[in-house]
Each structure stands twice: as C-alpha cells, then as structure tokens.
Amino acid sequence: MKISTILEKIDENQLFVPAFQREYVWKRDDAKQLIDSLIKEYPTGTMLTWETANPPELKGPHKYNEKQGAVKLLLDGQQRVTTLYMLIRGVIPPYYTAPEIMNDTRELFVQLETLELSYYMKTRMENNPLWQNITHVFQRKIRARDVMRTLEEKGETVTRQREDRIDDNTRAIENILAREFPEQTIPVKASIREAIDIFYKVNASGVALTDAELALAQISGYWPQARDRFKAKLVALEKEGYVFKLDFIVYVLLGCLYHMGSDMRKLHDADNSEKIRAAWDRLEKQVLDYVVNLMRTNAFVDHTDEINSPYALVPIIVYCFDKNGTHLTDAEIRKMVKWFFYSQVRTRYVSQLPQKLDRDLRAVAESTQPFDALLQVIAEENRLEIMPAEFVGRAIQHPLFSMVRWYLKSRGAVCFTTGMSLRRNMGAKYQLERDHIFPYSKLKEVGYGEGNRVKYALAQELTNRAFLTQVANRGKSAAHAADYLAEVKQKFPKALELQCIPGDPELWKIENYEQFLEERRKMLAKNLNGFLDKITATEEMVAPASLEDLIAEGESDELEFKSTLRWDVKEGTINKKLEEVIMKTVAAFANSQGGTLLIGVADDGEVLGLEPDYNSLGGVDCDKFELHLRNLFNQQFGTGFVTSKVVIKFYKVGEKEVCQIETAAAKEPVILKVKDKNGQTAEKFYARSGNSSQEILLSEMNAFIKERFHS
Fold first, then answer.
1. Minimal CA–CA distance to 651: which of 577, 542, 544, 572?
2. pTM higher than 0.70, yes or no?
3. CA–CA separation, 80 vs 695, rounded Å?
4. Of 48, 302, 459, 674, which sits most exposed with the smallest number of CB within 10 A?
5. Which residues contact 366 (CB under 8 A, 6 or more apart)?
6. Alpha-carbon gap, residue 600 to 653, rounded angstroms
7. Neighbours of 157 (CB within 10 A)
C-alpha cells in the first residue's frame, strides 16, 4: 500500500489502531532514521493489518458501526505509520491523544542541498534557507524554486548544477508519498484471539515489545477497557509521587493471580478475564493506595525516584492483596519495611527480575513468615551489615544514598537553611535537593577536579551531600564548609547531628576533607545498621530451594531429571516410549515418599529446555505441553490422583523453560499399565531406589506394599 494511501485511509476512517496497542514510544532519532531510509529507498520493514467485520475496541473517538462492513486494523508497524503521519500531516493521528505521544517527533528539518536531517537548532538553521521543516516540504508549502530564490536574494550564486541538486532532493522527499509500504494481511475470518496471537508472534521475533507489553495486548483483547483503567490509576498514583509504567501493573497482576514473575503467557488466555477484572477492582480501589500509604508513613518513601527498583513493591502488593482486605499488623509492617530497605541497599531486583520475582512470590504464597524468608534470601547472597568502606567513592546514584535519605527522614532531620522537615513538603520550591557540603568549586581548587579520577569520585561521594529544600539550595552560595556549617549550627543547633554531620569543626576545614568523609562514613554505617536492626527482630526461616538449587544438588531418591517428554534427541523424532518413562517415574515417586521430576534437564544437570517438545506438539509455549502431559496422567492414573497428588509448574532458568512435576506420596499402591513389544498391556509396580525408578518384582511386591502402605 502506498504511504499516501495509508494516510488517506486513516483520515477517511478506513484504517484504525486497536485499543490494545501501546502508546507512541518512538524517539526523535528513530523518526530521523526512518525518513533517511525512505529518502535513500532502503527497506523500512512491513506492516501487518487485519481485515475484520468484528473489530475489538478501537483507539480514538471513532466507534465502529456494523454498516461499515470489514475495516482494516493496523497491528504491526503502527510506530512507523504514526511517525509518517505526524511528519507528513504535521498533526497527531486521530487514533491517538496528546498524552499517548511519549515523544513528539515532529519539527524535523532537512538540509535540501545535502539531505542532512536534524531537529531544529537555531544557530544552524535560522538564517539558512536550505534548512526547511520537512513537513512543509511534504505539504509543498516549500518548493525548490522558493529556496533558490531566497538564496539569490541573499546574494548567493545558484548554479545550474546546484539548482538541479536542490530540485532533485526536494522531489526525493515528495516522492516518499508514492513509496509502497509492504503489507501483510490477516484475513477476515480470523477471530480476535487469532489476530492477537499473530500480533504476538510477529512481535516476539523482534525486540519491539516487552513480554509485559505483549501480555497487556492480550489482556486488552479480551478486556478492551483494561489499558485505560490502568492508565487512569497510574495518573492518580503519579500525583502522589508514585510513578509506574504499564509494565509494572502487568507484573502486579501476574503476581496476584499466579504468584510468579516470569511467565507472562499465563495472562494471555481469555479465561483470565473475570479473574483479572476482579483483581484489578481490588487493586485499584484498595490495595495500591494502601501500599503507597504504608510506604510513605512507615518506610519514609515520598517518591518512587527514591527507589532503585519499583519492582520491590510487587511482593509487598501481592502480600497485601492476599490478605483480602485485612490490614497488616504492626509486626507485619515492620518486617515488610525491613525487607524493603535491604532489598534496595542490596539491589535485589536490578537484574534477573522475572526469576527473582518467581522465587520471592513463591515465598509470599507458601511461607508463614514471608518477609523473614525473603530477608534470609538476601542474607544468603549478600552481607546485611553496611560497612563504612561501602561509601568510598559512591555517588548519589548508589542505593545507599536513598537509604540515608529514608533514615534521615525517620529521625526528623531538617533543612539546614529553612529548618523544615525533610518529609514531603508542599510546593515545588520546598522539594528536596542534594547539596555538596564541601562545595565542588572549592574542592576542585585543591586537586579534587576531573583530572584526578580517584579524588573526583571523593568530591562527588554521597557522604559529601546534605539535604536542603530547593529554595534553600538556590540561595546557598559556594561558601567554605567551615563557615557554612558553623552558621547552620548557630541557627539550628540540632540540624547537623540529625543529618549525621561530624560535629568537630576541625573536620570542616578543607584540608581535612578526607578525614571528614571517613568520620561521616563511620557515623552513617553505625547509625544505619542500628536503625535497620531495631525496626524489628526477624526469625530464621527455612527458605524453599530454588529450581537452580535443586538442579545443583543433582539427582536423588526424591529428584530426577529428564531431557525431554517425548522428543528423541538422538533419533531426531517423536518417541512415545519416553512418555512411558515419565509415567514410570511419577508412579515410582507416588509409591515411595514422593518426589520431583524436572523435564528439560539432562542427567548431568545441564538445562536443555522444552523447545524440542514444544515443537513436537505444534506449540511455542507451555500450554499445549501441559495439556498433553495432563491427558497422559489422567489416562494412566485417573483425574482424582492427578488432582490431589500431582502439581505441574513451569520455570525459566536463564532463557530456557523447565517443567517441574511434584508428586506426593500415594495412600494406595499406584499400578502402571504399559504395553510390551507385542502391544499387550501389562501391569507393573515401580518404586524409587536411590536415584532411579526400579520395578518391584511380583515376588517382592506383597512385602513392599505391606511395609510401605500398611505399616
């Protein structure tokens, strides 16, 4: 489809964007690169459209009418099409509102003699007629002859060669409208779910959307109002200083419904519709506001800018959600706050977010004292005690700085100039800023400038910072620390102590700067450790082993690994005999003391993943695999046994997925029916022996059953 036709169809209400699509997120450089590629006639990707007479909710004010018949929906390529619409038409397309345009990519300028592209810069472009707004070129408000006439009026010589170059370049831009944009079309017969599945597959092959964004697209397919509901709540929370993205909400929903953080595909199925709506009603009207108030009043967090990873709030939100309207006790709040502080100081969620949420949300679901268990996980990976050496050379971006801020708020610290509390104040001019105690300009004079990397880091160290209100910081001059701190002590005698500033005036002299830092590090480390210890006592918990822990332990009488369910790696084909091996292992665990089977893990502990099995079942994820596995279990053991004794879960280890089958010990013998090489059915009895499943011979079976089931 020609680009001009695409834009016309948008204007004529023939091409729409579904409500489940995300906002416009392209940046200016993306827009510039797209136009550059179009001018040079490079490939620029394709767009995926869906013709349907039963469209989902549409973005924008237009409401679908059945009399329209089939309409086109833009599923993939909407960022490119939106960019072109804004640059060619000069306005936001009708399917978006201004708040949904995360970056305004209009006002792109082109140098008509060189075709250089750039956003407006006054010094380069103001008096240079060769630089023109590309939208004006598309709309033919500026033509080549206009530019040449202006150049001549300015006294420049425009040769025939130069004239041709400017004219050719102008036409190259105008000709973009006639460029064909390759289109792939989903047919009319596709359902909404099928269209979204295709949309998912197209995006899953690239990096355009996160797993959470793809999950949100699926949710919006079966709940069209979801995105608007989520965004409305995010706007309300932002007014309170708590700024989140839509991804965060999706993680929260996954945590509340499934106590996991990795498998976003759990939210794709329309069977979730009622559960998600009910969960969101409670989150929107009760839980999220409750958690924000808890964090502000008990953890002294006034703004999410103070948090190194807002995803640390997910276990807290899920825990409060699980309480189902019951408020936390004082003891629960203290334990929650203590864990939160350590999760920030020890950067619990700055990497491997989904996997860590899996482990932590499992503890929330299964532990009687979840925050004790979660704190123990952090303690196993990091030292909890804060050491003075941890402050050396650390700038304000380090999480210790936020911990210092929360601690100072907790003890009623005040601004050095206004005497106001460091808690959230009314009015922008009273918001907190981080001021150098020893001014950098003075430190630079004595060798702490950028020329010495080590000393520059000391000048910027977070222990050389104090908190002031904005109005105080703006009025503060670059006075020597000795003079400034002496004045503060006179005006507000307790202010320095409350912000943990060493009280010895000798340390305020610039020649003693490093001794000042050393002393303040000790003060902060001692006070922070004391503060964290006294929040509450925590019990030592028996934390559940992670999947990685299980694999590292190796096979045993209660743990077995299998590479695949049904795919024969050596032969490169399906081998249903392998399925019998899985059944044998489950039966053996049931006849013994129970156990765990991991599929997708080799005997030596190498994680192989489930992709070969997924492909053999014609799927790309765990859904068909789990359905097939449950059917095998139901046929072999009966639904009663499977429901009460077998738990199937899926986990990601790195980028690979593993199936975990937990089998509980059975109360009655479990007999396995297998076919021999002649196709005859035989009954067999298996039990665990060491790290393998062994058949119990008929001569030994009665004694085994008597000892195991009737003793």
1. 544
2. no
3. 62
4. 674
5. 544
6. 10
7. 7
Query: Residues 110-115: contacts with CB within 8 Å, 24+ apart?
Result: 110/35, 110/134, 110/137, 110/169, 110/173, 112/137, 112/144, 112/147, 112/166, 112/169, 112/170, 113/162, 113/165, 113/166, 113/169, 115/39, 115/169, 115/172
Q: How far separated are the first and last CA of the chain, in Å rounded?
A: 77
Query: Residue 196: its pLDDT value, please?
Result: 72
Reference 424, options 238, 536, 300; nearest CA is 300
Phi, psi of 688 (to 5 degrees): -85, 140
| Strand locations in 444-583 (E) | 465-469, 559-562, 567-568, 573-574
* Burial of 153 per CB tally in 10 Å (0-12, 13-18, 19+): exposed
CB 39 within 8 A of CB 137: no
38-63 average pLDDT score: 84
Half-sphere exposure for 2 (CA within 13 Å, toward CB): 8
User: With contact defined as beta carbons under 8 Å apart, do 561 and 522 qualify?
Assistant: no
| Helical residues (DSSP H) of 299-410, grouped into ranges | 313-322, 330-345, 353-366, 370-381, 399-410
Full 3-state SS string of 528-546: HHHHHHHHCCCCCCCCCCC
How far is 149 from 129, CA to CA, in rounded Å?
10
Q: What's the CA gap between 157 and 558, in Å, rounded?
A: 88
Beta carbons within 8 Å of 69's beta carbon, 6+ residues apart = 53
- Domain ranges for the chain: 3-183, 210-384, 389-535, 547-709
Across the range 465-494, mean pLDDT stands at 77
598, β-bridge pairs: 561, 660
Give, in order, the Cα–Cα distances in Å from 633 to each of 26, 566, 580, 581: 48, 14, 10, 12
Question: Over the stretch 582-624, which tens digit does the pLDDT of each residue have?
Answer: 999 999 999 998 999 999 999 988 899 999 999 999 887 888 9
Give the C-alpha separation, 356 to 546, whole Å: 10
Coil, strand or helix at 137:
helix
| 102/109 Cα distance (integer angstroms) | 20
Q: How far is CA 212 from the centre of its chain?
A: 7
**Contact of 181 with 1, CB cutoff 8 Å:** yes
**d(C-alpha 534, C-alpha 531), whole Å:** 5
pLDDT of residue 281: 96
Of the listed ranges 31-45, 185-199, 552-566, the one predicted with least confidence: 185-199
What pLDDT does 425 receive?
43
Closest CA to 86 of 104, 71, 70, 74: 104
Find the length of the chain: 711
C-alpha count within 13 angstroms, C-beta hemisphere, residue 400: 22
Reduced to 3 states (helix: H, G, I; strand: E, B; else coil), residue 561 is strand
**Helix H or strand E encompassing 5:** helix 3-11
| Architecture of domain 547-709 in this structure | 2-Layer Sandwich (3.30)
C-alpha to C-alpha distance for 442 and 478, rounded to whole angstroms: 8
Burial class (CB in 10 A: 0-12, 13-18, 19+), 699: exposed
Sheet containing 131-133: give its strands across: 117-119, 108-111, 131-133
Beta strands in 37-113 (DSSP E): 47-52, 71-76, 108-111
Burial status of residue 550 (CB atoms within 10 A of its CB: 0-12, 13-18, 19 or more):
buried
Strands (DSSP E) along 182-307, which ranges?
183-186
Expressed in percent and rounded to 5, the helix, strand and coil fractions of the chain are 50, 15, 35
Q: What are phi and psi of 111, to 5 degrees?
A: -90, 110
Angstrom distances, CA of residue 575 to CA of 448, 565, 569: 70, 9, 9
